């Protein structure tokens, strides 16, 4: 097999080689799948919807129905209003959705479609009270990444539904792009802590369902729309992640994140933290929860924390001083790096395809190796690959697309995040809180032990 | 809830009870959740396996990200096709035009990776923002001394099938550019095999055993310099006729090379493919060799299939694949295993394909063009099938309902072509249909809830 050229230093390529990001409508689609009874429609060419479906199906292993307004040449010239009307008619007739979220694309944005106006027209044309809620989110693929589409959708939904601030007993939880298993775990935590959480988005069932005895056109689950209407009167918003501001698309609301918007518009207290991965970050989450619940952290979680610490003691030697490369979405990278930093792993490269300034936040959250950590924003997998060949990490952490780098270097890859296309169970990987951290820690330690064992001349039976 | 979309009625045909033919070759209905992708997809899947070419996607990042290493199209040498290159257009490029970025990207990538040629795919917004991709390609081609071929594949400009045509147009600019090559007697091109899971190598071996030389395969394990010689073949053998027919017809017109439509799935079609070629060359020795090959292979294969056939006889299948020609082969291959096809459809079949399916399948079989998850789930429930054959997007429909599934699309890792492919196919169908896991599923019965 021919070796591909390896460029010694990062050359300032203007092209992107093996993207370490996805386009904005994909993020919107995942978020929309987390709303109860919601069917996403992508306003653009048929391929956008189909490619995104395929990409999500390969990870979640679930039917992912996303409709398309299916632009033709005429649509591109004369506008997509009629196509959108037909698409909505067919989606509503076929799926009986509670809501339809229309995400735009590079094409519809470039030709200047005003989807908001179109939806108002379409709504005005029907007297049917059974019609679902219609809303749109601006997700031009030439701005930002899938995370921008994801956060823009959350913000749009909050703006769409949180119309008043009549106080209630709920709390809002915005967990970021995490796995269905993570969302289930967060639900359990908030319930155990005596808080009634509105999780947005909640695709813990819709993208990770059980076996069916009949076919559900719209899978059960998702954030209940009746709950969404209560967001504005909630006691607090827990927003996980630091890169949640919406600055791409048309609906930026002055660079606010959904939590910041709720705070500004409705006075809902905002508790922002990085993803709760590792002891420190999870402690922050539980402290914030305790502030709102006025109760001590339940015994169950104190025990989980104690067991995690116990395992840190058992495993610390296997990870200390090991060099890791972490890549992916900026908030996942930040969360994972903070965790690796607290267990003694040296992150030598933190890379994201997003064009955000990660450096300062990484240095803040990774005090042990703040000086040496190398950060790449707006990067791609080939840059990461070239760096990996130079830096010689002991393992890499990220989604499955980095597998080829680990394979070339013959080192372990710890699969986290989205997508996991080459393994079963990506949707069930737990990352968050003490329990998720425990799973990650065990996987990392065991991968390093396995690597050493496999490469030892004699093998061994005890660690 | 409406069971199915009324406007699509004429694209669904039940043998024995429908009066109309299957309507096809139409644009997908907005909001129907078609399983098709777009023009870009059609061109990308066809050209993707050319392993020593640079494939640069001009547009925002999505199109390149979703097609990175997307097919299991294997290469015996270079692996350049497995990298995903994009101009990754940003807002300022959309406002001021993407030409400067395209030119820089092409130049740097050609200098770094030294490909034998470059394909530049135009995606949706490229035409809208007015980039002259053809002019940039000509310019860079001149500067770099390699062919830089524009593939006009704006997603909205038709269906996936129009993308096939865009790919064929791109290929035909290469065909016929090496005139020094002298082809051996009995030389053919294989059109429409993509060397998924190394299938081309199986076919190549069969053809070589009967004395046939293959100049190039379009596009499995493809190489630019071999494609240039393709016009020296005496015959084009076309599989996956949906994607390559356009090129086959053009080569017939331009170079007088006749073509034959074949399929390599199942014993019948595989054997027919070898006989067709031997008969074409009117060479008795070749025909005898083909006969010997077929009989040797079958002698081994039939007893090997027997245990699977015993377990599978009487089971019912649904097929939904990209091209209808493959569906036809699959119906026959399933029959060989004692299985009946109750539902069969494709994304891009034409009238001839569907008429043939109507003749081939039994009364009551549903034939469908450009279907969607709702229809497919309804049909498989209605017919009470045990197996679904399709691609990634169909898999969860089957598994959610507790049905066996066989991947017959780009991502398959097992070779399914040829005689050994038939055995793999039987094994895979058996492994899925007869898995004990289904005992825990409450499979929807064939009486459907709308009745």
Characterise this structure.
Chain A is globular, with a radius of gyration of 22 Å. In chain A, helix 1 (24-33) crosses helix 7 (146-161), helix 7 (146-161) packs parallel to helix 10 and helix 12 packs parallel to helix 17 (433-454). Chain A contains 17 helices and 14 strands. Chain A is 43% helix and 13% strand. The model of chain A has no long low-confidence stretch (mean pLDDT 94). By secondary structure, chain A is α/β, with parallel strands linked by helices. With 451 residues, chain B is of the alpha/beta class. Chain B folds into three domains: 6-26 and 305-440, Nitrogenase molybdenum iron protein domain (Rossmann fold), CATH 3.40.50; 39-172, 3-Layer(aba) Sandwich (Rossmann fold), CATH 3.40.50; 187-291, Nitrogenase molybdenum iron protein domain (Rossmann fold), CATH 3.40.50. Chain B is 43% helix and 15% strand. In chain B, strands 1-12-11-10-13-14 form a six-stranded mixed beta sheet, sandwiched between helices. A four-stranded parallel beta sheet of chain B has the order 3-2-4-5, sandwiched between helices. Chain B has a four-stranded parallel beta sheet with strand order 7-6-8-9, sandwiched between helices. The longest helix of chain B has 29 residues, at 284-312. Mean pLDDT of chain B is 94; it is low at 446-451. The chains are: A alpha/beta (463), B alpha/beta (451). At the A-B interface, strand 1, helix 2, strand 3, helix 3 and helix 4 of A face helix 1, helix 2, strand 3, helix 3 and helix 4 of B.
Descriptors:
heterodimer; A: 463 residues; alpha/beta; Rossmann fold; 14 strands; 43% helix; globular; B: 451 residues; 3 domains; 17 helices
SSE order and pairing:
The complex is a heterodimer of chains A (463) and B (451).
Chain A: E1 16-17, H1 24-33, E2 38-43, H2 46-60, E3 67-68, H3 73-78, H4 81-95, E4 99-104, H5 106-110, H6 115-124, E5 133-137, H7 146-161, E6 170-174, H8 180-192, E7 196-199, H9 225-228, E8 236-240, H10 258-266, E9 269-273, H11 279-293, H12 299-319, E10 323-327, H13 330-342, E11 346-351, H14 359-365, E12 374-376, H15 381-391, E13 395-398, H16 403-409, E14 413-415, H17 433-454
Parallel strand pairs in A: 2-3, 2-4, 4-5, 6-7, 6-8, 8-9, 10-11, 10-13, 11-12, 13-14
Helix pairs in contact in A: 1-7, 7-10, 12-17
Chain B: E1 12-14, H1 39-47, E2 53-58, H2 62-65, E3 85-86, H3 91-96, H4 99-113, E4 117-122, H5 124-129, H6 133-144, E5 147-152, H7 160-172, E6 187-193, H8 199-209, E7 213-219, H9 224-227, E8 235-238, H10 241-255, E9 259-261, H11 267-280, H12 284-312, E10 316-321, H13 324-336, E11 340-346, H14 351-360, E12 366-369, H15 373-383, E13 387-390, H16 395-400, E14 404-407, H17 418-433
Parallel strand pairs in B: 2-3, 2-4, 4-5, 6-7, 6-8, 8-9, 10-11, 10-13, 11-12, 13-14
Antiparallel strand pairs in B: 1-12
